[in-house]
Queue: 2 jobs
Job 1
Amino acid sequence: MGSTAVVVGGGIGGLAAAIGLCRIGWDVTVVERASTLEDAGAGISLAANGLRALDELGVGEAVRDASRGQYRGGTRTPRGRRLARMDGAALENAVGSPIMGIPRSTLHRLLRDSLPAASLRIGSEATSVEQIGPGTVRVGCGDTVLDADLVVAADGIGSKVRNRLFPAHPGPVHSGSTVLRAITEHAVDLPTDFELTWGRGVEFGHIAFLDGRAEWHAVLSLPAGTRFADPLTELRRRFHHWHDPIPALLGATRPAAVLHHDVNELRTPLPSYAIGRIALLGDAAHAMTPHLGQGACQALEDAVVLAAALGTEPTVETALARYDAERRPRSQAVARAAGQAGRMGQQLSHPVAVALRNSAMRLTPSRITMRMLLRHHAWVPPHLT
């Protein structure tokens, strides 16, 4: 089997894939088009399945040390009435860890620091990817050409590699929602580690960090391309009457810190995650809505399964066939569940439907809620040898 790989994309999934390949003895080059890695981004929640994947990659302990466990929290109405309570201790007993909250920039830095600096090609865009023979894939990066035994396309929801491999695929579509998010400038007194609040066609949530700061997000049901001249002022207008600590979170935020993105998804599943010696990973393969908090976790699972297959199968082709067979059913099932969660949660807007959902949530036994979480969280990774 070959031993050189090019990873297209230096996000969380791409870096995790590179770490996994390095751990099985491959020479890896990560091609990232951004000219600088500014550690930008808001926050992220990591469930037990993502943390187990990080353990296999050798960075789980460092990530846990930089994260805050989500033990207290749940879901509320805009007036503060409790719909569901999150029991982080029970989740920890069931799967070994509560959900952990960490700034995305911190996770990215910890992954990047686990790779040899020489393996990162920053400011280098992959302009072409083609298989030039039975055992070689060529990546063009401007004036530079990289030949490898394997290419891992981790170039995000707008993946150009995916578009080349599947030109007839419709690609990502707008989910019907847009999200604004930021990290507070200073610590905020929060009674919970994590919380979601559902209104009619809108969600507000927060994740508390170790240093007392918090990430908040507001998901609104709006057409694609909707933007506000002053996003923070607009959010303060929309949420000023919602329960504490929502106004305080917005009040602790600098206007320049607010990020605004439409929520897109790969609604039409791909028929395969690999063609020849090119594998798709993370959002390039299965971009999903954020309503289950599983996007990054699924990319981390991809990375470990890919490395394990390449470390044990006799050829790259058989390894990629195994990767596709293991990852496509699970990740696409999680993507469908995330879309359904959004339709029954944040995107629900009819007052009667909202009232029925809220009543159902209050009456649902905690064991049923736990069973739903375990379906996604209780994943056991293969060992990397």
Job 2
Amino acid sequence: MSISWDDLKLFLEIARAGTLTSAATRLKLSQPTAGRRLRALESSVGAALFQRTSSGFRLTDEGEAMLLHAEQMAEEALALERKVAGGARGIEGVVRMSASDWVSSRILAEPLATLAIAQPGLTVEIVADSRLLDLQRREADLAFRFVPFSGSDIIHRRFRRIRYGLYASPAYIDRCGDPLSSSSGEGHRLVTMDSALDRLVDVTWLRARWPSAALTFRSNNREAQGAACAAGAGLAVLPRVIGDNLPLEQLGGEEPPARDLWLGYHEDLRRLRRLRRLVEHLDEVLPADL
């Protein structure tokens, strides 16, 4: 019996995702190709590995038995990949990074562009995504998050302090008055995060400051919040790197809480020269507080 490693990777992705479509998308395969390869794998091992149900693919007993060994093989392959990458000595090559959309565009893009110009052999790839990509599986080499990293094999530290401000458009202030003169927020409107992110510190601060204000616009996208605020939809707490660059007035008084931005990468990549140079460059050009 001969089993292809590529087919085992497909098996793992289906087991993790629960659907053939999601697994095919992650591996950049067409669904027919993924289905054909899965059938070939099951034919090779002589057993059905998944039960096809209306809610997705479920592992059979044979699939459960194979999963443990496939995961061990995947971890060994990833460890080897990280070790080989971590031993690279040159600046040339790709560094794949993960950060939220606005951190990518407002904080990282410009300094990383200047580094890429200075180092023609370096390719910087930013995945602008709020998902927490897996550093152990090398979904990213380097990640920036607003929550500390977990895992003893992840090297991480506080990278920067992100300051926030309270903003409103001139048109909103003309229409609704100065919000700082109101203790309850009666008659005022708020632009804030969506309900899934209600517990973020800036959301709780804004709603505690003006508990009677109505919610007029909600989004998990900070740029969308900034655009709605600039259009006069309401008051918004925004990162200073966004709010200060829009036609908005920053309101005085108590400053909203700041947040820590964390940096992390797998310990196997600590000797990767191009990653070290990238982090050094960001430390050189970005102020401690943003």
